[in-house]
Amino acid sequence: MRAALKAMLFVAFTLFGASPGTLSAADLPDAPAPRPGIAALAVSQSDLQALQLRLDSLKQQISLVHNYNQLEGPQDLVRTFMLDVDRLSASLLPLQTQLNAQLSVLGSAPLDAVATEQSDIAAQRTSLAEQKTKIDSTLKTLATLKQSAADLLTQIAGIRRNLLESELTLRTKSILSPGYWSPLLNPTADDRQRLSLFIEQAGDVLKAVWQPGERLFTTVLLLLALVIWTLGRRLAERGLTWLCIHRMPEGRLRRSSLALASVLATVLTAGFSLQLLFFVCTRQSPLTPMLTTFSQEFEKVVYACVLITALSRALLATQHPSWRLPAISDPVALALEPFPRLFAATLLVLMTIIQVANATGMGSDLVIAGRGVIALTVILIIIFLMVRTGKVRRQVVASGEATEGGTTFASLLYALTGLALLIALLSLLSGYISLARFITYELVWSFLIICGFYMLMQLAKDACEYLFSPRSPSGKALKQLLGIDDRRLDQIEVILSGVSRAGLLLLAAVTLVVGGIGTTLGQLVTNVFSMLGGGGLRKLNIIPSHLLNAVLALLIGVYLIRSLRRWLDNEFLPKTDMDPGMRASLSTLFANIGYALVILLTLSSLGVQWTNLAWIVSALSVGIGFGLQEIVKNFVSGLILLTERPVKVGDLISISGVEGDIRRINVRATEIQLSDRSIVIVPNSQLISQNLRNVTLGGSAQGVATLELTFPLDIDPEQVKDLLYDTYCEHETILDKPAPVVRFSKLTPEGITLTVTGYVGSPRIVSTTKSDLLFEILKRLGAAGIELAKPAPAV
């Protein structure tokens, strides 16, 4: 803090021109010569030594760590150290720039300096050069310290990964073994001594805050914390609810805002209460290292439990069912209501006890036994919750009050939760206690992430729908400002809504991977930004054993691609001016590119580096040489069809004696639907390499309805010609231009052959039109007493 204050004061003096090395009116030749070497550095040598000692202390602290969770605190301290170094470096950069500018103004030293003015300038140049050398040296030292801290962060990540792997693969006694429970029922003397030391230090804190003269103030603070947590939370929730009801527009945006307001009121009041309690305990004297470690971990546990209750209350909304965001029936919501509070209270008690054991450094047997108790308790509560919820859902469906079908994602989530619980229970029975604890913690963390981001995604969607609605004030203002119609405004709304939800979904996936229960907000934000910034993807040492990450990347990627494709097909593309064929082509092309990216991301999650894919290319080249030519040729042809679009979905084509409508263009082949509704699958390469007749290309193709009729030789040709011509002209589907034509085609001993031709608007209605014309012509010929020629009898 002292160094940062010095840096800020120095920058202030520099900006106002008060630094000794600055050229000003006092530096004119008439003014006294400046004293060389008096520029005070913002970072002194003692500050650099303090930073080095601070970094060495962190390294020593990390070297003594023997628990995975104990590395979270030092990791945050190293990041804070790097931020402090960056701030100090930033405070020196303006002075470095200023000195460079002053030295460039003075120029290089002349070869002969004999004048008095030249001597003064030389002294000033020497002073400025000395200052610049010191600043350059200090910046170099700070850069070295930052690089050492960055290397330490990389080492911490490796240590955490190794500790996590060793903990997850560590096998101890099963929970069915009597020896497993002995450390809890009969702790060792060393563990009892450590617990007594913790109780003694906690008692000293209580005595300090409850000593005579402090009791009144302590009581007031404790009552204030209690009032904030109980009455203050209710008042804050009611106040935010009033704002949402009276300031938010009626509709879904108000409903999602009410859910967010409920969560914010609960979390903020809990945070204020917790800070008051911490102030009560530390206002007399700072906490001991043991109590400091416990307080930091206890704070994380409290926030996790508060989030569980806050998100559950906001999403279930049992008191106001109309405010409920997810599609949950009232009986199911009422059945779920007591479980979050029970779950949070149980976690708070059990995890607090475990944090006491971790802070005091109790034996590993006792800590592992405590982890097993937490894992078993969480498993039993979740199993009872799932059984209870399933029973109520079946009752609701049987009674016919509501339909609790659920979505595909909810069913998949339900199945994955059941599978995770089964694996955790088997781990407890087989002695892999840390693995079971890890799975249960990840379940709780996944619940927090899914619920929180579900609420944020609903809020983003509802906000976009309102802001860009043609009926809202903001939508009307945008229409007037941009000069766009309602259709374009709907397109903007759909695009922004889709982009925001996709971004939140990606952020949720990253948060699910980089975070965990007990992660602070600062740690979470830092991990997410480092992951999204690209450096994390390059520096993570992911190995093939990380199969879980690959499976998650594949499932989330496929779900995201399918969701975005449904959004394109059902929401965005229908609101554009594209024809159905172009829409289908774009949707298929997007899906193909998306699935390719998902496969590459899955390979990356498995540990396959982007630069080490030469063996895959070699294998593909060998495969292509031995029989994949046709597949690759059809794949490339499919891409050409989707981009150049010589044919598109909905075209009527004829190729190799097959005539029909294009139904779908896939990556390998194209589906052609014939007139009898059967499907012919044609490889894409044939559509590119062979002669193809596209009847509807250009959208203005006409059909030709031609009939050939043979009449006896004794008829009146003009009468028949007029009859045929009138029949064609009077038919509703025959076009006026080009006009129908009746031609004398053939004269034979059997009779006179007349050909009548007319044009219709589409080739698809030719057969129907010809059938109608034949019926009408036969009817009129019969009325006129004209017969068709009869075929000659066979000899």
Automatic annotation (TrEMBL):
GO terms for cellular component: plasma membrane. Its main location: membrane. Residues 631-696 form the Mechanosensitive ion channel MscS domain. One of its GO terms (molecular function) is mechanosensitive monoatomic ion channel activity. Residues 588-629 form the Mechanosensitive ion channel transmembrane helices 2/3 domain. Residues 1-25 form the signal peptide. Residues 708-788 form the Mechanosensitive ion channel MscS C-terminal domain. It is a multi-pass membrane protein. The chain crosses the membrane at residues 257-280, 300-318, 339-360, 366-387, 408-432, 438-457, 502-522, 542-561, 582-601, 613-632. Keywords: Cell membrane, Membrane, Signal, Transmembrane, Transmembrane helix. InterPro entries: DUF3772, LSM_dom_sf, MS_channel_1st, MS_channel_C, MscS-like_channel, MscS_beta-dom_sf, MscS_channel_2nd, MscS_channel_C_sf. Belongs to the MscS (TC 1.A.23) family. This is Mechanosensitive ion channel protein. It is found in: Cell membrane. Residues 140-198 form the DUF3772 domain.
